Amino acid sequence: MGLGDDLMFLGKAEEIYKETGRKITPVEGTGWSPLFDNVEFLVKSGGLTVNARDTNVRCDYHVDYYEQRKETTPKGKRVVFRDFKPTPFTIRLTEEEKRAADKDLKDLGLSRFCIINPDYKSTFYSNNKNWGFQKYQDLVNRLYKLTPVLRIMPTDSTRYNEPELVNATNIKRGVRDATALIRRAMFGVSYDGLLQHVFAGFNIPGVIIQGGLINTLHYPTGVYHIYDHPLTPCGSMYNCSHCVDANESISVDEIFKSCKEIIDENVNNSS
Questions:
Q1: E strands, the chain, where?
Q2: I need a surface site. Which of 66, 95, 160, 182 has the fewest CB within 10 A?
Q3: Is the pLDDT of residue 37 over 70?
Q4: β-bridge pairing 67-73 and 222-226
Q5: What's the pLDDT tens digit per position in 102-142?
Q6: Is the pLDDT assigned to residue 212 strictly greater than 80?
Q7: CB of 26 within 8 A of CB of 57?
Q8: Closest of 69, 65, 58 to residue 12, by C-alpha
Q9: What SUPFAM superfamilies does the database record attribute to this sequence (predicted)?
Q10: For residue 181, which of 269, 114, 118 has the smallest C-alpha distance?
Q11: 3-class secondary structure, 130
């Protein structure tokens, strides 16, 4: 549970702010997120309290997010999902952050590019979001002939340790600086998580892998690849054989096809 959840909170909080005219104070989250900075309708105290995570704690305005409950199984815990519809939220970047990112892209020689994200966090859903680094590399080996590829590596090397991608520009940036770069992307590829919410907020097409883990949290700008199986979505918080099968079933060909369709549409719209 992390920055992606913060963006889902922000999407709902913005709706509540527009509806009530009252500024919002987040409660029951993980503290003041870097994504909360520069948001005009948030205050640290004194506002309309809104839960930033699924919780039973009382607040002024309660939102039911995607986690209906957790269940304990013989293998471990799993999340039972609610059919939650997230609202896109555009991260409030400063003008300085935007200028720095545009200079960064110019120095890197990138204008029309895509984002590929092979990194995944294993602290909550174990290794179930691991589509496979070699698959991402095989995808890049096809894509770079059509468009430059940018891979923004997380700065937290204790949680993320995937190697650099060949035939891509690999850089490390914090979340806000990364977002300022991503806003210029033509499209992006990622497993379900933070980046799909970032893409949606900037109206960037996202090719999103959900495997067998989850089949909700969809945006109109996303193309979702889901394992069609009775156990989907399993929500497993332990290493899950169903998720292994799911990730194996989603091929590089399948993901490349979705990417190619976006590239072709972008070319047609530019001509």
A1: 24-27, 48-51, 67-73, 76-81, 114-117, 149-153, 169-172, 187-191, 206-211, 222-226
A2: 95
A3: yes
A4: unpaired
A5: 999 999 999 999 999 999 988 899 999 999 999 999 999 99
A6: yes
A7: no
A8: 65
A9: UDP-Glycosyltransferase/glycogen phosphorylase
A10: 114
A11: coil
Residues 44 and 110 in one domain: no
83, part of any domain: no
Three-class SS of residue 42?
A: strand
The domain that holds 227 is classified in CATH as 3.40.50.2000
Q: With 80 as the cut, is the pLDDT of residue 269 above it?
A: no
Q: Which of 112, 115, 118 has its CA nearest to residue 132?
A: 118
User: Does residue 17 belong to any structural domain of this protein?
Assistant: yes
Domain count, the chain: 2
| Residue 67 contacts residue 29 (beta carbons within 8 Å) | no
Q: How far is CA 100 from CA 115, 175, 176, 214, in A?
A: 18, 14, 11, 36
Residues in contact with 269: Cβ distance below 8 Å, sequence separation at least 6, in sequence order = none
Is the preceding omega at residue 26 within 30 degrees of 0, hence cis?
Answer: no
Q: Is 82 domain-assigned? A: no
The verdict on 105 and 61 lying in the same domain is no
pLDDT at 229 > cutoff 70: yes
Tell me: pLDDT of 157 over 80. no
List the one residue out of 145, 152, 120 whose CA is nearest residue 133: 120
99 plus 60 within the same structural domain? no
3 state SS of 57: coil
Residue pair 167/149 in contact (Cβ under 8 Å)? The answer is: yes
> In terms of residue numbers, what domain contains 222?
95-270
Distance of CA 69 to the CA centre of its chain: 22
